[in-house]
Amino acid sequence: QVKLVESGGGLVQPGGSLRLSCVASGVTLRYYTITWFRQAPGKEREGVACTSSTDAITYYADSVKDRFTISRDAAKNTIYLQMNSLKPEDTATYYCATDLYLIPPPDRGNWHLPESYDLWGQGTQVTVSS
Question: Which single residue of 9, 11, 79, 107 could bond 22 by disulfide (Cβ 3.0 to 4.6 Å)?
Answer without folding.
Answer: 79
